[in-house]
Structure prediction request, 586 residues.
Amino acid sequence: MRTGKYDFVKGLPQVTDPGRYKLLSATDDLASVKGLDDVPVRKIASTQPPHYRLIDPISGKPYGPSLATHSDELALGRSAYRPLEKTDQHTIVEVAENAKVREVLEVDGRTTMFIDDVAYQLDTDMLRRADKIDIGDRLKALPCRVRRESNAVCATIFVTAIPAAPPFPANRFDETKGWALWFGDAIYTPANGRAPMEVASFANRNNLNATMEFRKGIYGRVKINVPEQGLDDTFQVGAIICGSMDRSKQYVFTRLNAGDFYVAELAKGQSLREALTFKQASTLAPGLKDELVTVYTGSLNANNMARIHGIDKVEHAIKAMDEIAIPIGSHLNPPDTLKLIKVDTTPAEAALFDHSTRMIIRSSTDGAATWSLSRNAPDSVRETTAEVFNALFKRTVITVDSTQTGAKALKIDDTMRQLQKIISKKLRRPLNNRRNIAFAEIKTKSGVREIYVSVSGSKGDTGFLPMFEKPANRKEVTVASTRYFNIDSRTWFPETALNVTPENKLLAIPHTIEDIETYTPALTLRPTSLDTESKLISVIRTKYPDPKVLDSITIATTMAPCDSCSIVMKQFGYDGSPNALDVIWK
Prediction:
């Protein structure tokens, strides 16, 4: 039954390598107990809030008194996850199969990942629980400016990024729908003369007094007082304002730190201009909290995207998404997915900003004839994939056995390792990150067959594939009557996460926020325009502006298409004919 090594510290079993620990059952977790990290615990009741007990590492059975999640003695979540693999695009960690994962883009470029409602962020090479990362790593001090003749005390203000100026003065309450570029800002002011509080001090706070400073649509900024040693620190943060489905209540929902969600409940008729009292969101029924977190996450994603890329570009992307969102798998009516609160959103907005909707599109077969792992693809697509990869490496790297019973994966992802070895040998230095390889085979209605090839990134690594290697970084090679194009040879691609043509064609869109604390700024701000599939579609759209002249397009990629590339490819298929698009991976 044991799944890891333990030490006993202060009488409690502590897992020595939490990044690799395997849970014994679906109700198990690692947690901080009385300040000690990575102690195995098991949920023993379905009460709300749930209660846990310690797990004996020898017998694997629960023991001891009940530990409440809503208490100072227990904080759920292992301290860190150890990455299994790193590529130039991703850091890959393994979580429990039944874990809920949600991602949130922060205004400073970070991504916070929630794993079963516990916030994590990348800290160097580890995915670490957010409350274990020093708050000083996130907050920047704004210089204090007080007039010389003033007797005012200079208070140091900390921010996650230089705050966006609200488009209107304080105390304005505008209920019309619109953007709130300031929504993702967090402005923290410690009490005069005091250093910033520790991250752990955020936990288990209740009944915090606050006021609403201003409002735009469902977005508002609240000023919350957090008492500490007899003095109040203040937080000014964005909040969503949502009504209950039966119109009996109004919820103001916000976040003080990565995973510290708080809610204020207002009875019908109570004004947002009155004093507010926030309590921990963990006190809500799980279904209600989940829906509020979903709306908050989408709101943060939308407003941060508009802030980073500009409102005009984001509205252009929404317009481009309007026509295709439902055909490629988005919800027909996104508000229907919420049962407890009311929101106003469209299929296009859900596809662009909501992570769960993006994941539905990514996994749905809507919008393509084939959208699957290689083991499930038609024989003709599998044979084309093997033919092309063997040609690119100028030897047999993939074999398709047509006599076998039951299709097997082609394992085309192994070619990433082979390319990595080639590049390392040529550059005479080890490489830590593998490069995704993808090709697009097109057949025109006039009988032309062409194959476009790309390796992820902007370093021109496609030129290291043996087919294009000699002479150096060849642009084009003809095999029999088929022309192969190295689309990265002497080509510049714009480095951006949002690229929409004047004709409303999507070439790159930002990743959605999956959970709230898992990516570094480098990963979150990585330009999706440099993904292999995005580059391929960009080149093919340029050469064939009318996709209807194509009879078929087959795309094979060594890694599963990400949430951004999935949209880009499916729109291209929609513009031509979804029945002509085949996409496979691995």
Notes: Residues 137-285 form one domain. Residues 286-309 form the longest helix (24 residues). The first strand starts at residue 6 and ends at 9.
